[in-house]
Amino acid sequence: MRRLELDLDVDFSERRLSGSATLELERVDPTSTRVHLDTRRLSIERAESGDGSRWSPAAHELGPADPILGAGLSVVLPAGHDRVRIFYATSPSASGLQWLEPAQTAGRRHPFLFSQSQAIHARSWAPVQDTPAVRITYEAVVRTPPELVALMGAAGNTTGERGGTYRFSMPQRIPAYLMAIAAGDISFAPLGPRSGVYAEPSVVARAANEFSDTERMMAAAERLYGPYRWDRYDILVLPPSFPFGGMENPRLTFATPTVLAGDKSLVALIAHELAHSWSGNLVTNATWGDFWLNEGFTTYIERRIVEEVYGADAAAMEAVLGRQDLEDELARLDDRDEILHIDLAGRDPDEGATRLPYEKGALLLRSIEELYGRGRFDEFLRAYFDHFAFQSITTADFVAYLRAHLVGSASGAVASLPLEEWIERPGLPAVAPRPVSEALGRVARAAEAWSSGRVEEARRAFPAWTTQERLQFLRRLPTPLPPARLAELDAAFALSSSGNSEIAFQFLLMALRAGYGGADARLEEFLVSIGRRKFIKPLYEELVRTDAGRARARAIYARARPGYHPIAVDTVDRIVGAPA
Ligand code: BES
Ligand code: ZN
Question: pTM for this structure?
Answer without folding.
Answer: 0.98
